């Protein structure tokens, strides 16, 4: 079987096009798949769409977009996979793909909803922030920013038993965070928030890039606290007017600052990397298909896959305070 794939490419800031690629029959160890649904990861994708500085200098235009995909196997030359199987992967936004078996993150059970499972990695990023920053039952956790990763961080910190607070000036995401179990605050409510934190947060998870919010994180962190960065302080902004490592906060509070976006991909042969990407995703997906975790709070709507550009524009305009969107490709 040979198919023609429609693949989303970002050729320059704001310039999205769909290219046609001919996909030959799969080679041994590969599968030919049709995409069912992809989820937009707003922070990463909108940064590229608006032309913010790349995280890695090697990533330039043209570039692929997206990494949250569920597809159906059309033809398989890979052991353990058959026609009709549904698989989660880091594939970009595209109608069809050739997928090596080793890149499958999860084979979905029959009862799993593809659209919900497509959001699994967004939860993994919040889960990894909670794991890496040492959140424990009773920890005071502050999440700054309530986009998709802010909400997944709130979700996972609440599941971990933390006392969770969150900052956002957007009413709808704040309402969602409240339903998830967090106490929410606007940025102009820093003084009462500081009192509620009673000495400061044990963990501050930052999911935004503004220097003002970084200073806010420094002020609201408690003694020996961890600042867990899912956002990218200063990305696309001029140099800050205040020292981001001001000694009255960084030194006197003995803060630990850590990037928490990555985790080990797989376990090692002796089991020392137990909380790795594959096992974390499998556990989170099991929470989703069992109903204990519901991505409906993240998904603000659904677009046809070829309407990706419109979905980006609506997210940038904060239409109806959208969090993220799903893209449908096949029935």
From TrEMBL:
Residues 148-263 form the Alcohol dehydrogenase-like C-terminal domain. Keywords: Metal-binding, Oxidoreductase, Zinc. GO terms for molecular function: metal ion binding; oxidoreductase activity. Pfam families: ADH_N_2, ADH_zinc_N. The keyword Transmembrane does not apply. It comes from the Bacteria. Residues 15-102 form the Oxidoreductase N-terminal domain. The keyword Nucleus does not apply. Its cofactor is Zn(2+). Belongs to the zinc-containing alcohol dehydrogenase family. This is Zinc-binding dehydrogenase.
């Amino acid at each position: 079987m040979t198919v023609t794939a429609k693949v989303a490419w970002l050729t320059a800031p704001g310039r999205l096009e769909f290219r046609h690629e001919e996909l030959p029959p799969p080679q041994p160890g590969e599968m030919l798949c049709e995409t069912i649904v992809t989820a937009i990861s707003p922070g990463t994708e909108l940064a590229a769409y608006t032309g913010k500085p790349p995280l890695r200098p090697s990533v330039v235009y043209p570039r692929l977009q997206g990494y949250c995909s569920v597809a159906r196997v059309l033809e398989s030359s890979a052991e353990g996979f058959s026609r009709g199987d549904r698989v989660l992967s880091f594939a970009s936004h595209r109608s069809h793909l050739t997928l090596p078996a080793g890149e499958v993150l999860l084979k979905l059970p029959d009862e799993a909803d593809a659209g919900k499972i497509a959001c699994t990695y967004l939860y993994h990023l919040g889960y990894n922030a909670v794991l890496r920053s040492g959140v424990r039952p009773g920890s005071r956790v502050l999440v700054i920013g309530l986009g998709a990763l802010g909400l997944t961080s709130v979700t996972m910190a609440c599941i971990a038993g933390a006392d969770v607070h969150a900052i956002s000036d957007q009413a709808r995401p704040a309402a969602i965070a409240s339903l998830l179990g967090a106490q929410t605050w606007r940025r102009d409510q820093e003084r009462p928030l500081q009192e509620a934190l009673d000495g400061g947060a044990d963990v501050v998870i930052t999911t935004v890039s503004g220097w003002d919010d970084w200073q806010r994180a420094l002020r609201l962190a408690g003694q020996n606290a961890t600042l867990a960065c899912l956002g990218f302080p200063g990305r696309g902004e001029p140099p800050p007017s205040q020292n981001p490592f001001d000694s009255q906060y960084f030194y006197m509070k003995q803060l630990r600052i850590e990037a928490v976006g990555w985790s080990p991909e797989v376990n090692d042969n002796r089991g020392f990397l137990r909380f790795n990407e594959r096992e974390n995703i499998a556990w989170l997906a099991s929470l989703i298909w069992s109903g204990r975790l519901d991505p409906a709070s993240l998904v603000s709507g659904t677009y046809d896959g070829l309407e990706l550009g419109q979905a980006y524009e609506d997210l940038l305009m904060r239409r109806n305070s959208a969090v993220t969107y799903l893209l449908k490709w096949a029935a």
